[in-house]
């Protein structure tokens, strides 16, 4: 069987689903290709919470709202971030603080569980017009002046003027296009889990930059709960994974006391770890192909913007395709060139910022430690720079 559409989206993650929805709701016919295996996820106890959460900024919020997905989220499981505290290390630790009031906005970001986001996207997909979901594994891809196509392992095929690769960091689509990548392993693992805290967090996200133990982030969840993202060096990550959740809670309590008080694991068996790396594809477009999300870029999670970059990709690509001239098809070279130019600055800035901060704060060198702590304190006293930083983080342009 051959499926024909304007767009073929390959990928089963949140970014791929959002791309399929965006094109479909814009009046284009879409085929969403998803892998045959069921999507993996954690088994939650009644009242449990995902260990994988996203800090979604205003760009993500606006896109999901326009797709009617934000309204479908379980609002009781979404936590607004009202303030953010960034701290250095050492006896003279620097500090940088942001808050929604100073940024003249209702919230700096929103913490959303992966399962909550996926459920809302899946519900929207069921009602999307012009959208077909095909289950299968792609085995071949071609592109020429007439269009592009994907062949599946069951003998079916999908033909479309544009193929969107939303299939993650190890993107099959990117590999078929022979797009090279610059790769750097950070030698770190992101250890994630959730805790209940003794004291209210007041919607404050906290982040500690340490030179020897990595970067520790505690993000607010609804109620008196916190989500941990600890970007730990490999050896420490193995230690953290081997310790009991109570021991991990003690480590965090020592770091965060007295702000959150005693910490207690929400679901002790759910502690996960993910390898951290930087991936820079040499291009996010190829003939009749556009990459979005982790297929187009992988950054350090210290700023929590991996998913936000992906949703910004989707917004830009849908805009470029929808606003194309009538004589151009969806995969026209100039249309894809506009998309690449629209995303170039934003992606580069985030790559440079996250990679630069990781290098700066991972150096265990006392003079550098003093300088970076002084830098945090200085920026904290400069409102103009603080507003520029927070606007960039929220995805807004001043």
How does this structure look, described?
- By secondary structure, the protein is α/β, with parallel strands linked by helices.
- The protein has one domain (2-41, 48-360): FAD/NAD(P)-binding domain (3-Layer(bba) Sandwich), CATH 3.50.50.60.
- The protein contains ten helices and 21 strands.
- Strands 6, 7, 14, 15, 16, 17, 18 and 19 form an eight-stranded mixed β-sheet that branches.
Number of domains: 1
What is the CATH C level class, in words?
A: Alpha Beta
Indicate the percent of residues in helices.
25-40%
Quantity of strands, as a count: 21
CATH topology: FAD/NAD(P)-binding domain
Please outline what is shown here:
The protein is of the alpha/beta class and 398 residues long.
List keywords for this structure.
21 strands; 10 helices; six-stranded mixed sheet; single chain; 29% strand; FAD/NAD(P)-binding domain; 398 residues; eight-stranded mixed sheet; alpha/beta
